[in-house]
Amino acid sequence: xxxILKATAAKIDEEKDYLTELDNEIADGDHGVNMAKGFNAxxxxxxxxxxxDIGSLLKTxxxxxxxxxxxxxxPLYGTAYMKAGSVLSGKNEMDEKDLVAxxxxxxxxxxxxxxxxxxxxxxxxxxCPAYDALKSGVEAGEDMKTALTKAVEAAETGVEYTKxxxxxxxRASYIGDRSIGHQDPGATSAxxxxxxxxxxx
Length: 201
Ligand code: ADP
Ligand code: MG
Fold this sequence. Notes:
By secondary structure, this protein is mainly α. It has one domain (about 1-200): DhaL domain (Serine Threonine Protein Phosphatase 5, Tetratricopeptide repeat, Alpha Horseshoe). It has nine helices and no strands. α3 crosses α4. The longest helix has 19 residues, at about 95-115. The chain is globular and about 45 Å long. The structure holds adenosine-5'-diphosphate and magnesium ion.
C-alpha cells in the first residue's frame, strides 16, 4: 500500500500541469497543484509508517489530504481515503471483497461531504461507474486484476462522459452550459488513482 500511494503521488505529480489546465478551462485552474501538494505531503509521511496496517495508511493519507489541500478536492478525496481506511482497519492484506467495500465507503464519503450524484460533472462520474464494474466483476467471481481492469475502462468512459454534460456542483457550475465540451479534472484524477492501483496490485 505504501508503494501504491507513492506511485499515486508520482502519477499525480506527472499529470499536475494537465489537471490544472483542465481545471483552468472550467474553473480556477488549481486542481493539479492542489492534488500534487496533498500527495507530496502524504509521501513525506509514508516512510515513517512502514509496518502499519492498510487501514492506518489510508486514514493517514485522508487526514493529510484534508489538512494540506485547499479547495474542494482535498476534503473530498481526504474523506474518501479516511472512509476506505476505516473499512480496512487492522488489515495487512486486501482481497477483492475488501476492495469493493473500501471503494463503496470512499464514494459514500464523497457523497456525504459533497452532496453530489452522478451526471453533475465531478469525480463521481468516473468513480461510480468504476465501482459498479468492480462490484459486478467481483460478484461474478473475477480476480482483482480482471475486475479492476474493467473498472478502469469504466472510469475512462466516465471521464469521456464528463465532456458531454454541464457542471452543476463545484466551481465549474458557475459557468453553467459553458462547461459542456470540457473534461472534468476531478474525474480525471480519480481515473489516475484507479489506474495506478491496477498497475501496482
Ligand atoms: P476547487 O473546485 O475548490 O478549486 P479542485 O480544483 O481541486 O477544487 O477540484 C475540482 C474538482 O472537484 C472538480 O473537477 C470535481 O471533480 C470535484 N468536485 C467539486 N465539487 C464536488 C462535489 N460536490 N462532489 C464531488 N466532486 C466535486
Ligand atoms: Mg479548482
